[in-house]
Automatic annotation (TrEMBL):
<dbReference type="InterPro" id="IPR042099">
    <property type="entry name" value="ANL_N_sf"/>
</dbReference>
<dbReference type="GO" id="GO:0000166">
    <property type="term" value="F:nucleotide binding"/>
</dbReference>
<dbReference type="GO" id="GO:0044539">
    <property type="term" value="P:long-chain fatty acid import into cell"/>
</dbReference>
<feature type="domain" description="AMP-dependent synthetase/ligase">
    <location>
        <begin position="61"/>
        <end position="386"/>
    </location>
</feature>
<keyword id="KW-0812">Transmembrane</keyword>
<dbReference type="GO" id="GO:0005324">
    <property type="term" value="F:long-chain fatty acid transmembrane transporter activity"/>
</dbReference>
<dbReference type="GO" id="GO:0005886">
    <property type="term" value="C:plasma membrane"/>
</dbReference>
<keyword id="KW-1133">Transmembrane helix</keyword>
<dbReference type="InterPro" id="IPR020845">
    <property type="entry name" value="AMP-binding_CS"/>
</dbReference>
<dbReference type="Pfam" id="PF13193">
    <property type="entry name" value="AMP-binding_C"/>
</dbReference>
<keyword id="KW-1003">Cell membrane</keyword>
<keyword id="KW-0813">Transport</keyword>
<dbReference type="InterPro" id="IPR025110">
    <property type="entry name" value="AMP-bd_C"/>
</dbReference>
<keyword id="KW-0276">Fatty acid metabolism</keyword>
<dbReference type="GO" id="GO:0005789">
    <property type="term" value="C:endoplasmic reticulum membrane"/>
</dbReference>
<comment type="similarity">
    <text>Belongs to the ATP-dependent AMP-binding enzyme family.</text>
</comment>
<keyword id="KW-0547">Nucleotide-binding</keyword>
Amino acid sequence: MYVWFASLLAGLVLLLLPAVRRTYFPHLFQDARYIAKAAWFGLRLARYRTRRPFYSLLERFTDAARTHPNKPFIHFEGATYTYLEVDRLSNRVANALRTCGGVTQGDTVALFLANEPCFVWTWLGLAKLGCAAALLNCNIRSRSLLHCFSCCGAKVIIAAAELRDAVQEVLPALRQQSISVYILSDGGHGDGILPLSGEISRASDEAPPASLRAKVTMKSVALYIYTSGTTGLPKAALVTQERVWAASFIQSMSGVTSQDVFYINLPLYHSAGFLIGLTGSIERGGTVVLKRKFSASQFWDDCRKYNVTVTQYIGETLRYLCNTPKVRGNEKEHSVRIAIGNGVRTEVWTEFLKRFGNISVRELYAATEGNVGFINYTDRVGVVGRVNFLHSRMFPYALIKFDTEKEEPVRNSLGLCVKAAKGETGLLVGKITKRSPFVGYAGNKQQTEKKRLCDVFVKGDLYFDSGDLLRIDQDNFVYFLDRVGDTFRWKGENVATTEVSDILAMVDSIEEANVYGVTVEGHEGRIGMAAVTLRDGKTFDCVGTYSHLANYLPPYARPHFIRIQSSLEVTGTFKMKKVKLVEEGFNPGIVQDCLYFLDLGAKNFVPLTEELYEAIVSRQIKL
C-alpha cells in the first residue's frame, strides 16, 4: 500500500515539475546556462592570469593563424584577407615601426584611422611590439583631437591618408612635443609628416621576437578608448589586457561560435566595434565583415552576400533598418540569427523582430571604463539582463536612490546611500574590488576621482558611479532607463555637454551656453539643444554660429536647437539647471523664448516655427 502510494506521489511530482518550473521558475534553464558559461570564462581568465609567458589575445590570434591559416578573417568591400595574410601584414607593420620609427615595448601609439582592414593589422603589429594603442575618433578635429592625443602620452600617431588635413591642423603643437607623425600612404608629404605604407611594404613579414613584448602582463594597458565626460573633452579610458579578454567573451556568452560570420558596422575606435566585434571574433576564431560605415540600405544585401550570422547594433541602427522601405520578397530570408548591442527601444525591438524574423537580440549594458555589466540572455524584449546569484557575488553592484534635481545620490542621516527598492529607478554603482576594478582615465585624476563614490553602504567602502539610471523589476529583469549628468547620446555617440558649451561660447555673439539633450519622437537617444545668452548689443548670428560649429564639432555633437534666454538659471553652487529645460524641449508652443533650428540644407540656423516643429516631429525633416 505504502509502496503504491509513494510511486503514485513520485509520478505526480514528475508530472507537475515542468508545470511548476514554467510557472514559478520560467527562466531556470537559461539562468543555469548563463551561470555555467560565466563560471567557465571566469576560470579561463584566472588561468590566463597565471600563465607564463603571458597569453594575450594577440597569442590567441597567432594561434588561429597557425591552426587555420587560410580561413577568411576579414571581408571588406569585395576583398578577403585570411588569418595568415593579416598575420603577415601585422608582422610587416611591427618590423617597419621598429626599424624606421623606433617604436618599442611600453610605447603608446595613437591610431587615427577609419574602419578599414589596415586598422586591424596595424593594431596587431603594435601588440607584437608590446605597445598600447590609443584609438582616436576619426571625426574629431582641432582642440579635441590634440587633447585626445596628448592625454594618453603617445609619442607616435599613425593616420589615414584621408585624415591628413586634420593632422595638419594640429601639426605645430605635435612638433613642439616632438611627436612622430606617420600617414598610411606612399607619397611624400613634407612638413614633418612621414609616409608609412612604403616602409611597411618593404619590411619583413617574419614575426618579430616574442621577447619584444616580454613585459606585457594581464594588468598592462592594451588600449585607450575615449568616452565623453563632464570635463568638456573626451576622457581616455584605460583598457587593460585583462579587460580586453573579458570583453572578448561577450560573443561566446551570446551564443557565437567559430563558424559564425560577424558583421562589424560600428566604428572600431569605439569599444562596441573593437572589443565586442573585433576581439570577440578573434577569441572565437571566426570571420568578420568590416564596413566603413553603417548603411541601412546596404545592410541586408551585405548580410546575404557574406552569409552573415551575427551582427551588432546600437539602438539607432535597428531603427534605421525598421524605417527602410519594405521591398518585395521575404525580408526574413537571411542567415542572421544573433544581434548584439545596446540602446534599442522596446517598440523598435518589437518591430525589428516582427519584420526581419526570429533573431536573438542580445541587448547588453556596459561602459568602457565600468566594472559591472549585464547581458540579456533571454528573449524578453526591452531588458538588458537579469539578476543572478553568481554575477552579483563576483561583481557586487547595487541600484541606489538618486536625486535628479540635485544630480547626486540620496543619503540618509548617517551619510550613507539608500538602496532603491525593486521596481524603483536607481543609480547603478559597482563595488571596486580586485576582481572588478576601476582603472580610471589617462591624465585625468579629477575625472577619475569623480567616478569613485565613497561611503555608499558602510563608511570607507568604494564604488564606481556609472552615471546611469536602471531599474530591476519583481522578476529580476534589469532595464536601462537614462543617463544622468552632463553627457547624452545621439547617433550612437556620447556627447559631452561642457565641450559643446565651450565651443558655443567662442561664438562672438554668445555670452554663455547651457547644453543638454532632448528627446525627439521616433528617434533613439537625445539630440543636442542649447540655451544661450547673447552679449550686450549682439543678435544671434545664425550663419556664423553654424559655420563655427561645423568647424569645431562632429555632426552628432552639434546642437540642432538653440534657445535664446535673457539669463541662464543656476543652482546655489552655480551649476546650470537643465531639468526644466529638458522637460520643455523645443516645442515653440511651450517655450516662450526665441528658438532656432539647425537647417543642414541651408547651412544655417533658422527660426523654429510651429510648422517647422510639426515637420520635425512627424519626421518629414531628417535629423
